[in-house]
DNA sequence: TGATCGGAGATCATTATAGTCTCCGACCAT
DNA sequence: ATGGTCGGAGACTATAATGATCTCCGATCA
């Protein structure tokens, strides 16, 4: 059903929270730790930890160890696209399996497959959609959406 | 990864095939049976059968029983949208679980959820994308098919 | 130096998916 | 009318993906 995973959900929530804390008036620049987010949004602590680790690995947030440690945005909210967030958690986003079959991958249907090309276009459109929306757009409550239906 | 299921893949292939047979020059109006499609595209017969049954149930194709039976498009190719095909197979397409929680459904994160609104907008955009592409659009430019005219 | 933080790996449970098997009823030709 | 060919439908199994948990480690700062 074109569903995104819970982990991706958690990633979005966490990033939104971090961005809000950092860019807000109250405590700008404050680091946010895993526990705080987990409690705020009822997310299993250790699962969220993994999500945040993945985000840190892909360079979207930076981690600070030790007491008073936690996470900070590594980029400005306007530079963090939804596409990048999702890819950090779920790997390259592909609508269909064959879209990323590079080397020895075999698709039983491939030889007579009649839907590969159109599906790749759909996938590309969705990717552009997610690339045109950033974390900043999610903060204001009026996200910017651009549909590019490449027929 | 926003992946669509294999069943949905099969549905698209099958519909594309049926549409091509029906609207093509060779054997216009010919009914297509499950076995023919399964063999052409290397799809497990019984799984494909279920897919086609679902498509028939949702009114995209009409079935004909008995010998010389099979399937026909119930609508013109231009009226069959990708969105409708996917929904026939996978149910209402929702990017996130909470998007369709209607009555008693509870989302642990819901009370403080900060991403619901923007996600719903993304979802809506994707839906529009898939609604603007029809089976007819998928017919252009793909190579195929040689069918043996059965006696 | 010890309590608090993130990093990383293994592990388990649950669910969704893919695929199979079996039986039924409709149809058409002979 | 009857048997072979078709779709309709349900139960069923296997496998993979996901969600979640547990444990141990290293970094850091008071």
Provide structural commentary.
The structure is a homodimer of 151-residue chains. By secondary structure, chain A is mainly alpha-helical. Helix content of chain A is 46%, strand content 5%. The first copy, chain A, has helices at 6-23, 34-41, 45-57, 82-90, 116-131, 135-140; strands spanning 61-64, 70-73. A two-stranded antiparallel ribbon of chain A has the order 1-2. In chain A, a hairpin with a 5-residue loop joins strand 1 (61-64) and strand 2. In chain A, helix 1 packs across helix 3 (45-57), helix 1 packs across helix 4 (82-90) and helix 2 (34-41) packs across helix 3 (45-57). The longest helix of chain A is centred in the N-terminal third of the chain and has 18 residues, at 6-23. Chain A binds a DNA duplex (30 and 30 nucleotides) through helix 3.
């Amino acid at each position: 059903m074109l569903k995104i995973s819970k982990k991706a959900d958690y990633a979005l929530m966490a990033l939104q929270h971090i961005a809000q804390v950092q860019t807000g008036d109250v405590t700008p620049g404050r680091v946010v730790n895993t526990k705080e987010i987990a409690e705020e949004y009822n997310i299993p602590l250790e699962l969220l930890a993994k999500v945040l680790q993945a985000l840190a690995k892909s360079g979207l947030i930076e981690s600070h160890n030790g007491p008073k440690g936690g996470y900070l945005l590594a980029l400005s909210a306007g530079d963090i696209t939804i596409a990048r967030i999702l890819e950090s958690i779920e790997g390259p986003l592909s609508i269909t399996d064959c879209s990323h079959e590079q080397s020895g991958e075999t698709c039983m249907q491939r030889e007579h497959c009649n839907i590969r090309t159109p599906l790749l276009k759909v996938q590309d459109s969705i990717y552009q959609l997610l690339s045109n929306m950033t974390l900043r757009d999610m903060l204001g409550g009026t996200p910017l959406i651009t549909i590019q239906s490449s027929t």
